[in-house]
Amino acid sequence: MSWHFYDKYHRDIRLQRAEPVAGLALSISARNRRRKWDRFLREIAPTAETTVLDVGYSEHEHTELDNFLERHYPWPHKITALGTHEPLEFARRYPKVTVTTYSGGRFPFPDKSFDVVWSNAVLSQVGDRAKQLEFVREIARVAKRAFITIRNRHFPVEVHTRTRFLHWLPKQMFDAYLLAIGKNWAAEDYMRLLKP
Questions:
Q1: CATH 3.90.550.10 fits 3-149, yes or no
Q2: How many helices (H) and strands (E) does the chain have?
Q3: What is the pLDDT of residues 39-93, one digit of tens each?
Q4: Model confidence over 86-145: pLDDT tens digits?
Q5: DSSP state of 194
Q6: For residue 9, is it left (φ>0), alpha (ψ between -120 and 50) or beta?
């Protein structure tokens, strides 16, 4: 994917969205996602033989940035996607990708099953600190290497909820705000933002 795509995509998004914060957040996310992808290619240097476990695929795609690995990895038949939702739309969009569902906790794979794990901004969604540590331990158990990214709590806009600054409040206060505005899906264990 070229930078031209991102420029065109975000120009279109800005025209479609009335909320300028959403457009800005998406534009920054696109640039950030591309930088992560370039770093993944540079540091992991995958080949046609590299097996990848994508931990945390998106069943529903809301932007062109969702399921970035599946959209761009040149060897989709080498990807296994792991998630907690039934892969109905995902499986139709990415028929060459193997999909495995689980209920959380221990990954359903033997030790060192994959060359690399790709986990993009999922760690903040798995629960409290104990669950986050378990998640990282499972990544280390099933893969020889890992590429893990997190959502930065210091970024001024929380991208999923389009909230400015309030995610800097203590977790309990931010959750109360989310419940008050009807975004209860983003409260509690869904979002425990980390500091880099």
A1: no
A2: 6, 7
A3: 999 999 999 999 999 998 989 887 788 899 999 999 999 999 999 989 999 999 9
A4: 999 999 999 999 999 999 899 999 999 999 999 988 887 787 889 989 999 999 999 999
A5: B
A6: alpha
**Distance, CA of 151 to CA of 28 (rounded, Å):** 12
Q: H helices within the chain, ranges in order?
A: 3-16, 20-44, 68-72, 88-93, 129-142, 171-180
CB 192, CB 124: distance < 8 Å:
yes
CA nearest neighbour of 94 among 62, 66, 121, 130: 66
Question: Alpha-carbon Rg of the chain, whole angstroms?
Answer: 17
Q: In Å, how far are 95, 118, 169 from 149, measured between CA atoms?
A: 25, 8, 22
Name residues whose C-beta falls within 8 Å of residue 180's C-beta, 6 or more positions apart in sequence. Answer: none
d(CA 178, CA 163): 9
Identity at 50, one-letter amino acid code: T
159 token code pair: 């991208």
Q: Where do the domains of the chain lie?
A: 3-149, 157-190
Q: How far apart are CA 104 and CA 192, in angstroms?
A: 16
Q: Which amino acid is at 60?
A: H
